[in-house]
Fold this protein.
Amino acid sequence: MGDHGESAALLAGLSGALTASGHRLMARVYYADTDFSGVVYHARYLEFLERGRSDYLRLTGVHHTELADGKHGEKIVWVVRRMEIDFRSPARIDDILTVDTRTQEISGARIFMAQQLKRGEEVLVEAKVEAAIIGENGRPRRFPREWVAAFMPKSPTSAG
Amino acid sequence: MGDHGESAALLAGLSGALTASGHRLMARVYYADTDFSGVVYHARYLEFLERGRSDYLRLTGVHHTELADGKHGEKIVWVVRRMEIDFRSPARIDDILTVDTRTQEISGARIFMAQQLKRGEEVLVEAKVEAAIIGENGRPRRFPREWVAAFMPKSPTSAG
Amino acid sequence: MGDHGESAALLAGLSGALTASGHRLMARVYYADTDFSGVVYHARYLEFLERGRSDYLRLTGVHHTELADGKHGEKIVWVVRRMEIDFRSPARIDDILTVDTRTQEISGARIFMAQQLKRGEEVLVEAKVEAAIIGENGRPRRFPREWVAAFMPKSPTSAG
Amino acid sequence: MGDHGESAALLAGLSGALTASGHRLMARVYYADTDFSGVVYHARYLEFLERGRSDYLRLTGVHHTELADGKHGEKIVWVVRRMEIDFRSPARIDDILTVDTRTQEISGARIFMAQQLKRGEEVLVEAKVEAAIIGENGRPRRFPREWVAAFMPKSPTSAG
């Protein structure tokens, strides 16, 4: 194993892509995501949402490891402050989910994101996420100005 | 191994207990619940909350296996429809969490529950959960009258 | 959102690819996979391994949903019977892991697979997995002849 | 809520108990532990096993937080090096599992533990676990002499 061309193809969608309104990632539902009711366990949807947010950060140049390594003067971690989640319709094993993430607002030390999990065009889960970055003292930090620019969509768009 | 008296002690708090306002369970934070930021991963709090709701059902006489086995005329599963979650303060490894659950309202085919995760008296996570029961056709079912009685607190209480 | 060309790129590596010796998938490490020690939680490696096996099945034409739907005469599920796992070196957040899976042997109702999780060329986790398929009565079933052909590597190769 | 006598009962079995041959913990199977095949997802058994090992450490006086806080001269974390796991029979939702853990051998920087997950007297999962403690430099450390005494069973016993 180990053909490099092959690896390039395998890596293609791994971090998703920036879109006009934010970020899009596609991800598969596996055994591990389901529960005995036959569909995805409700808390596992939050992991798909986290992947979308993490890859959105990644593609805008913000890496968790760099944050934790103190590149910004001190160790910084992201924390989720609040979520509102509507579980509209269940995802099932083998499904391919689209994770759409966009920033709604950045206000001082808080960022508000809107996320959707979709199967094709059908919205399965919709979430509003309020997050913050905190420093070593556990206190929220203001978002650096360049991040605000990176996370805010270029133009007002309606779709999620 | 296998002393029965010993086992009784080990089983003591396993399903929590019914309280004046609902249900209380205590649970430990393990490695599996944490993430690299050093505290509990946000989606894992939802598992603690699920344990509280499941054991609340259990102690009121509603068992997931019986529901799934069709004791009520058809296979029934619980589904979470919506959650609002405030992550106020992080839980850490080795912490003992208190999971308090109470029913706020039952309305036709929907139940609204309020839950708190606490460490001692400190509220770490607060959640509002809207759930429903659905039958084999995927449609919501009304809650049986005896369940409404079982889930609604005996008296109006203020604490969570 | 919703450009179709874009979606094609995002889907590219989603199920990995069949290789000369078996199957290869690439996957990212997220917050959810880590624990407070700073690296991936040991049980989460098993989820990456499951993804590799599930996608290997998928690309050879075996779908969990079809199995469960009774396409083969009755409901069939895969069960893991035994695992030997060497956790050699830790994976970290943001890492891209390669999941290599190959079949070592199929013997009646059992399949033996060898799997590796790698970061670049470094082997982080090595696993031997014995699995079986069971029918509705809970008893193991022999693997259909066409599956044996699909799962066994075309030629004897040494690499994992 | 908040009666102290009630809390004592709820806390009773929370860390399990030391036994003649090691440690025993009882734990419930919830929705989160299961997958769409209807039984516990194989990787989740490892979380039950981790709880057993963590509480065994706890009751012998070893706390993860203290280890991580550098009480022993530097930050120490436990790492699992190798597991052999036999998944004999599935656990189901609502099941109460017994997690039995005993030390087989401590050799320099490695500890070998044998674990069983049981439902009643039936052994569902059997595991051999090789673990180590590593310091800040990522290198294994020898087990302190007092730990060796704490982890080794008082008398040779046969049961798990």
Confidence is low (pLDDT under 50) at residues 155-160 of chain B.
